[in-house]
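Problem 3 from the worked examples.
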Amino acid sequence: MPRRSDCPISNVLDHVGDKWSLLILRDLMFFAKHSYSELQNSDERIASNILSARLTQLEKDGLIQKRTDPNDKRKRVYALTKAGKDMLPILLEMIAWSGVHDPNTNAPKTLLQRIRHDRTALIDELRQQSSGT
């Protein structure tokens, strides 16, 4: 995809500037979803054609990788790459913003407190959790 500009925010948005891409990263990072069907069954109910397109684009952009499922060689699973895991602080900031500005957010209070007071340890823990498939 050609760059629109050299602006760093524009660059990030070129990779994850739609809600579906961010929600896929969220599910891989926070909810240990790895298969196509697990991702499709998220609360937001992404359409299969959109999910397929976003997975392809995220893989092309180097944020996720598709692998053979170790438990069933006929299936594929998705995992975050290092670049995908590096999106963690951005997603945490989005959660923190929602915690302040959305009284109906379902972000757990303990998570919001950890983002504010124990961010580095939280990031380390979440990186470790998202390492396995």
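Problem 4, a separate protein:
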Amino acid sequence: MKLKSEEEIFELTKEIVKILDEKDAINIKVLNMKNSPLIVDYFVIATGNSETHLNALKDAVIEKFKEKNHKLLYFDKDRGYEWLIVDGGSIVVHIFTENAREFYDLEGLWSEAEKIDIQ
């Protein structure tokens, strides 16, 4: 499998934001993580309003990665979590309940990361 260009990764990030928005995810944020010590280009962070909503958002993101033939390194398969992760290597999607998002505060933790306005 060939490595994707920076442009292709950014385009996929935009498509993930779009699909999350279409599925009524709340407060979608994109952080440019290229200058962080992590080996990831973008964090996409979103909030869902119920366990069912979180899982629907996760499933939509997984389908988008598969549709674009983008390798998935990891995604949460169980239910009952307040923080779901879909790890596509260069793009990591974090889907939270409102309480968990506030508690873990990834935007605060990575406050030096550039926030990208995609919507």
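Solution to problem 4. Residues 23-110 form a domain with the Beta Polymerase; domain 2 fold (CATH 3.30.460.10). The longest strand covers residues 26-32.
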